[in-house]
Amino acid sequence: MENFMRSRRNFLQKGAFAATSVLMAGKISARNVSDSRIRTEEVKPSCLDYGRSFICNTGQYNAVRLWIESRTTIIDTTTGKSIEYLQCGSCKSEDTFGANGTKHLFFEDNYDFLPIFGDDQVLVFRRHVDIRDSYRIIRSTAKMWGSNPMIRKVNPPVITELATWEQMRDATAAGIPIVTTTEIENTDTGLKAIIECPCKTMNISHVKKMYQTDNGPVALPDLSKRYDPQISSLSLAFIAFNKADAADFVVEAPTPVKVNGNEVIKVHHYSRLLSFPAKNKVLALGKV
Q1: Quick one: pLDDT at residue 1?
Q2: How far is Cα 152 from Cα 78, in angstroms, rounded to an integer?
Q3: Residue 199's closest CA among 183, 212, 215, 210?
Q4: 250 pLDDT exceeds 50?
Q5: What span, in angstroms and rounded, lies between the C-alpha atoms of 41 and 35?
Q6: Contact predicate 100/87, CB 8 Å
């Protein structure tokens, strides 16, 4: 009986330890699964639905609604601070609410008009037929179209990262909206930027099994130095890439127009070419 009781105690102790070990293993496994899910959620891709995202201004004379065309986030890696800049769609110079709505609503000396919002400021680009001092103007948001604009940023319910050429091919052919993100960084200044835009043009080569984006305009920051205010670091550019680790930009800049080798005028034109190491992602707003 004593041997039996000792054996039973040993069994219960070992069994309890084994059971506890199993339970602890279960807890560790569950915690690992939970942690894994958390990590997955943290790196889950996100972007705007650009077909439904707008800045609705609050001015009394003109509460203009502007379509958000791209988003650039500049991150100070030394402090963790980030500022988001929303580049809006371009329009033409107009006599707003003028002429009783009948004719001559556009100014004769016309220009392209494009605003970028961020940090309670607006950077406005006015592109005339020739180069003028009014090309870049920074004003407070309140002085442009009223303070505290309603920024309506809509996130799509489903986002699928397109990791292969086949996925990009299929999403392109299916007409699924696509958004791209490009991350660039300057380690000397400690500045990083994430540029996000709708993919309006996607090239697909069935022969080469390659893709290539060509989109814009976007707000491209100069990360080579620190600007005050930071919004003044932004320029208008188009972006192209066909692989995950590099991006090319063509930036709007003063560009000479030559006739028979002689410069006759300078205009603002997309002419300055830049290339950067980058981290590119292609996102489909739906299932592929």
Answers
A1: 43
A2: 30
A3: 215
A4: yes
A5: 10
A6: no
103-138 residues labelled b (16+ CB within 10 A) or e (exposed): eeeeeeeebebbbbbbeebbbbbbbeeeeeeeeeee
What pLDDT is stored for residue 16 in this prediction?
40
C-alpha 30/C-alpha 69 separation (Å) is 43
**Sign of the dihedral through C-alpha 99, 105, 108, 114:** positive
SS3 label, residue 257: strand
Q: Of 141, 142, 125, 54, which is closest to residue 91 (Cα–Cα)?
A: 125
pLDDT at position 170 is 98
3-state SS, one letter per residue, for 153-199:
CCCCCCCEECCCHHHHHHHHHCCCCEEEEEEEEECCCCEEEEEEEEC
**Beta partners for residue 88, in sequence order:** 68
CA nearest to 67, candidates 90, 43, 37, 38: 90
Half-sphere exposure of 250 (CA within 13 A, CB side): 11
User: 115 - beta bridge partners?
Assistant: 124
Mean pLDDT of 73-99: 95
- Output the CA torsion sign for 106, 108, 111, 115: negative
For the stretch 155-199, pLDDT in tens is: 999 999 999 999 999 999 999 999 999 999 999 999 999 999 999
Which contacts of 249-254 are long-range, i.e. CB under 8 A and separated by 24 or more positions?
249/220, 249/273, 249/274, 249/275, 249/276, 250/274, 251/220, 252/125, 252/127, 252/217, 254/131
Global pTM value: 0.84
